[in-house]
Amino acid sequence: MSNTELPNAETGLPSDAEERRAIPPVICYPNETLPKPDLPRYLAARETAQKTDEVVVAPRQAACFRVAAGSFFRITSVEGAQVGDLNLWNDADLSERFFSGKTRALHGTHVTAGERLWSTLPHLRPMATIVADSLGWYGIDSYGGSVHDVIGTRCDPYTGNLLGGGHYHHCCHSNLTRALADELNLSLADAERHVHDVLNVFMCTGFTRDTGQYFMKASPVRPGDYLEFFAEIDLLGALSACPGGDCGSEHTSDSAACYPLLVEVFTPESTALDGWQSPARNGYDGSHGRS
Ligand SMILES: [Zn+2]
């Protein structure tokens, strides 16, 4: 071993620490080969669409909704700045659900128009495509924050109990659990295991540069702002109006001002998507190397 490989006695750092830190990163999943959504076609179909359903999500509660493949759904801020926690399932098979981690790996920490919400393995296909985002202008702010994140999980009473004790019942996790239980006539325990990491609609988040901690800041959303999706498969959705409100101060309590969220479903004319089909499940043969 040469002296240059020994850690510096004062700093404890290897002599080539800066050199190693200076290695440039590479993108884990270059996404140029991702199947691209046919956005012009979706938007042309949207022009023909009529509103066919509407659900208002009460503050600190969640509600379910269904969207047929080929229809659109829009989440709108009404009355005041409010963040929403979104779960999506294949309406015919709850085991296929939104995969926040892989969506993050493929598109980045926050999603916007033109990007897609992907489903869990072994399905790994687009469940929904974002077709419009009125907060698309926000970009990445000077803190490294952006909106509509796939880095958070969902506020939940277990973490609340871990960090502060107590039993708070209106975290998004519990709201989504109750909504799914009511929608499918399941016990709370049966519903809870289907609740998963969310798309944080309208939430403004990032990681601190110095400590790498997950942060939130007051959402830039204002009444009238919306995020709209094209349903690639038949969807069951659940949306929670987070007890954090605009998530500018705290969650897991009733202290923040909270507002409703509106979910609207729009269905295009029957011929508008002639020949279009839901994406196929992932093409991997599933053998995992054994025949
Ligand atoms: Zn929440």
Q: Can you give a write-up of this model?
A:
By secondary structure, this protein is an alpha+beta fold. The protein has one domain (about 55-265). It is about 15% helix and about 25% strand. The protein has helices at about 15-20, 40-45, 100-105, 155-165, 170-185, 190; strands spanning about 50-55, 60-65, 70-75, 85-90, 95, 115-120, 125-135, 145-150, 200-205, 215, 225-230, 235-240, 260-265. Strands 2, 4, 5, 8, 9, 10 and 12 form a seven-stranded antiparallel β-sheet that branches. It has a six-stranded antiparallel β-sheet with strand order 1-13-3-11-7-6. β9 and β10 form a beta hairpin. The relative contact order is 0.26. Zinc ion (ZN) binds near residues 171, 172, 242 and 244. InterPro entries: DUF1989. This is DUF1989 domain-containing protein. It comes from Phaeobacter piscinae.
As residue ranges, the low-confidence spans are none
Query: Tell me about the biggest sheet?
Result: 7 strands, antiparallel
The tally of beta strands, per DSSP, is 13
Helix content: 10-25%
The geometry reads as: globular
Q: Helix and strand succession?
A: HHEEEEEHEEEHHHEEEEE
Please tally the helical runs, counting DSSP H or I stretches of 4 or more residues: 6
**Could you say which structural class the secondary elements and strand pairing correspond to?**
alpha+beta
Give the mean pLDDT: 95
N-end to C-end Cα span: 47 Å
**Per DSSP, what share of the residues sits in E-state strands of 2 or more residues?**
25-35%
Could you say how many structural domains there are in total?
A: 1
Alpha-carbon Rg, integer: 21 Å
Each distinct ligand: zinc ion
Protein name: DUF1989 domain-containing protein
Domain DUF1989: 56-236
Pfam families: DUF1989
InterPro entries: DUF1989
